[in-house]
Amino acid sequence: MASTDQLTVVDPVTRFPDITPPQQDQSEPGLDADLIPGTDRGEDSYRGTGRLEGRKALITGADSGIGAAVAIAFAREGADVAMNYLPQEQEDAEHVADVIEQAGRRAILLPGDLVDADVCRQLVEDAVAQLGGLDALVNNAGRQIAVESLEDLEEEQWMTTYEVNIHAMYRITKAALKHLSAGSTIVNTTSVQAYEPSTTLIDYASTKAAINNFSKGIAQQLAPKGIRVNAVAPGPIWTPLQVSDGQPKEALPHFGKNTPLGRAGQPTELAPAYVFLTSPESSYVLGETLHVNGGMPTP
Ligand code: NAD
Ligand code: MG
């Protein structure tokens, strides 16, 4: 989509088109391959500058959307990448793996459902074995299903949202710790929803507030070991999450238009935040939440 790289000075209002997505529906988890309009994950534009040379990264939800953009950027910055995603997302994952390999880096495909505690733990071991170590973790997988009222928010949805967004992050982070040495980094994906919860996203938004809080607490605990933990809080970003019941259907054409920039963000616009927080250049940045949200005010 973008013809210029992320280091070229352009007007952020018009860097990407102001999209008006048609109403559409995909079953959960949704595919980038079927999204209308398609998204920009940086395939044709992200320019690496050697900031993650030789790093070994595990990224969850790396098949599509923000995770895919982060995986592509990490590879172009010099990292090998282990990718977790759901088995139904193999098509999206293989596309991202191709882009990583074209950058001359290794892409390790590790599909698995993070609702399963054993899968979370095994994922870390498989990533470590195949990468030959681990020094960068990005907890990015997330589940978002809009429900109009608390009366309709079923126990099963509440539990599954917390399993994927919170319990998996705890399990993966805990399993990764014994492999992480000084200089390693963890970046968690929270949301503007942590501060401004939508009425339709009570379960999801509360997990995002918890992710933010977890990140700030664990950052202090791990700081003396030289392991830095931070978070990124995206605003409205056009990804498959939104069309697999993440938003009420009638909201899709207006998606992202209420931001000061007046448009939805593209996944590749998130990548530099994750690169910065993973790169050694952010050595004095810990427990921070970097907001990438088109200008929506945050606390
Ligand atoms: P996405 O659908 O492309 O990515 C979410 C990924 O989560 C999926 O690709 C899937 O692989 C993974 N996932 C979901 N359930 C899983 C499970 N049970 N097991 C394993 N993996 C599972 O959408 P995205 O918008 O790029 O989402 C990435 C992160 O960004 C999420 O944490 C989301 O909450 C967060 N976020 C997105 C937005 C936005 O507007 N798109 C805004 C704020 C935060
Ligand atoms: Mg996906």
What features would you highlight for this structure?
binds nicotinamide-adenine-dinucleotide; 299 residues; seven-stranded parallel sheet; single chain; 31% helix; alpha/beta; globular
Short description:
The protein has 299 residues and is α/β, with parallel strands linked by helices. It has helices at residues 65-76, 90-102, 117-131, 155-177, 202-222, 271-278, and strands at 56-60, 80-85, 107-111, 136-139, 185-189, 228-234, 289-292. The protein has a single domain, classed as Rossmann fold, CATH 3.40.50.
Q: How are the strands of the largest sheet arranged? A: 3-2-1-4-5-6-7
Structural class: alpha/beta
Number of domains: 1
**Cofactors and ligands:** nicotinamide-adenine-dinucleotide, magnesium ion
What's the SSE pattern? EHEHEHEHEHEHE
CATH superfamily: NAD(P)-binding Rossmann-like Domain
CATH class descriptor name: Alpha Beta
CATH architecture descriptor text: 3-Layer(aba) Sandwich
Uncertain segments: none
Helix content: 25-40%
Query: Roughly how many Å apart are the termini?
Result: 33 Å
Largest sheet: 7 strands, parallel
Number of helices, where a helix is a run of at least 4 consecutive DSSP H or I residues: 6
CATH fold name: Rossmann fold
Shape: globular
Number of strands: 7
Q: Give the rounded overall mean pLDDT.
A: 97
